[in-house]
Design a protein that fits this description.
- By secondary structure, the chain is mainly β.
- It contains four helices and 27 strands.
- Helix 1 packs across helix 2.
- The mean pLDDT is 96.
- GO terms for molecular function: hydrolase activity.
- Keywords: Hydrolase.
């Protein structure tokens, strides 16, 4: 399964296009519905999203994520699959198409970190893989039924994350991938106010917000060590902010979660074990990626003492063993994250050599043990 979100206090996950939710007792996952195949979708869509076609593909390539679901409120869900955005108003039992994404969007449409829900609006960041297409931040003011353009980003390849700062309600954006396309900024009146940009150190996926800073890890497979950086809130509006490196990891950092435990703020990041070189990187590059790992640190150390909560290797597939000229794409290994203030954090290794697809709880007491 792929961990999607915590919906009304319960784990929600998917297997291909089928949707499962945790029972009230937390003892099992129950199938509640299935995302439909759009009428205009063809064989290519089924190969990416639907068994048994998808199974034939992933046996060779490894499992790649093809569905995202976000919880909007107690009954409303939003989903992306391939080029289509779906909405459900009955907890995932029935779905309707509400928008389409760029033609060159990846199998899951956008990144899981690319949707943010506020009291009034939903924001979404597009992820075209075609560098000639202008990425947009879309906004819906009616619970995901209709969408308009909130901002355009003509000088970036695609958007990695759209997030709400829980302490100020500002909307933050991260982008990539070439040096000049990397930025971290805030959405202000239809434009992006850049906080920092211009090289791989500003190439982030998901941000982690704390009362005193914003943290991120670098997503750059050809960089030997990927720093985890912290930028003090006092520097958000400075001309030349100077983030502090608080840790380094050996694989690209993707996803983030935060949770408060006994008065301490914890930040978690997960890395990906990537399967190949970066098409936007230097002509000559070395892949530095040795595991899909979850690391965590707390405010008690000012986020300088980091603990490894879990680590995995990528599952080996036939395309990893024999792939002349690299014609067959191969999938990365990820660890998806979700958190609940009462229950702790859930981690979900995906396309890994062990525990693949398992949703594993990390209760709050596990963090208290490291305090």
């Amino acid at each position: 399964m792929k961990l999607q979100t915590i919906h009304d206090g319960r784990v929600l996950a998917t297997n291909d296009r089928s949707i499962y939710i945790e029972s009230a007792e937390g003892e099992r996952m129950t199938r509640i519905g299935q995302l439909p195949g759009p009428p205009s979708a063809g064989l290519n869509h089924r190969l990416k999203t639907t068994a048994p076609y998808r199974t034939l593909v992933t046996t060779v390539t490894g499992r790649f994520p093809a569905v995202n679901i976000w919880s909007i409120d107690k009954t409303t869900l939003l989903a992306s699959v391939d080029r289509w955005m779906f909405r459900s108003s009955d907890n995932g039992r029935n779905w309707s198409v509400v928008s389409t994404l760029p033609d060159s969007s990846p199998p899951m449409g956008v990144l899981p970190s690319a949707v943010s829900v506020t009291d009034e609006s939903i924001y979404l960041g597009e992820y075209p893989l075609d560098g000639d297409q202008t990425s947009r931040v879309l906004v819906s003011n009616d619970g995901g039924k209709t969408w308009t353009t909130a901002a355009t980003l003509p000088n970036v390849r695609h958007i990695h994350a759209v997030q709400t700062d829980p302490y100020t309600d500002d909307i933050w954006i991260t982008t990539g991938d070439r040096d000049e396309e990397c930025l971290i900024g805030r959405l202000q009146d239809g434009t992006i106010e850049i906080v920092g940009s211009g090289d791989q150190s500003w190439r982030a996926v998901e941000l982690a917000f704390t009362p005193t800073a914003v943290l991120w890890g670098v997503d750059s497979v050809y960089t030997e060590q990927k720093p985890i950086r912290a930028l003090s809130r006092a520097q958000f509006d400075t001309v030349d902010p100077e983030p502090e490196t608080v840790h380094e990891v050996s694989s690209s950092v993707y996803y983030a979660e935060t949770i408060a435990v006994d008065g301490e703020q914890w930040v978690l990041f997960s890395t990906a074990m990537e399967s190949g070189t970066d098409g936007t990187g230097p002509d000559t590059q070395t892949v530095h990626s040795d595991g899909a790992t979850v690391v965590a640190a707390s405010s008690s150390s000012e986020f300088t003492d980091w603990y490894e909560l879990a680590t995995y290797r990528k599952r080996t597939t036939p395309a990893d063993r024999w792939n002349p000229r690299g014609y067959v794409p191969t999938a990365n290994a990820y660890v998806f994250l979700a958190s609940d203030p009462e229950r702790g954090v859930f981690i979900n290794p995906y396309n890994t050599d062990r525990d693949d697809g398992i949703v594993r709880p990390v209760p709050t007491r596990a963090f208290a043990a490291h305090s």
